[in-house]
Design goal:
Number of domains: 1
CATH class: Alpha Beta
Strand content: 15-25%
Mean pLDDT: 87
Strand order of the largest sheet: 1-3-2
Helix content: 40-55%
Largest sheet: 3 strands, antiparallel
CATH architecture: 2-Layer Sandwich
Radius of gyration: 13 Å
Low-confidence stretches: none
CATH topology: Alpha-Beta Plaits
Length: 73
């Protein structure tokens, strides 16, 4: 099993879905972790983002390139 690490913060569900499409289309293994805190009314989401993407370090540069293409960041 590959070791995954946090690669980038996702700001919303749209970014997450676009990244999912890109990574699945390029056969890059990953996990998207959504931060949900309905009990706190979204406070952690404002501070830490909607969620984050984990993948192997060897794919970091490819993933960041895809993210830049999607968001312009």
């Amino acid at each position: 099993m590959e070791h995954f690490e946090k690669i980038l913060r996702l700001d919303n569900a749209f970014e997450a879905e676009r990244m999912r499409e890109m990574l699945e289309g390029n056969n890059i293994p990953f996990s998207i972790i959504e931060r949900t805190d309905s009990a706190l009314g979204g406070i952690s989401e404002m501070e830490f983002g909607w969620g984050y993407l984990e993948a192997s370090a060897e794919n970091r540069d490819k993933i960041l390139k895809f993210y830049s293409e999607i968001t312009g960041k």
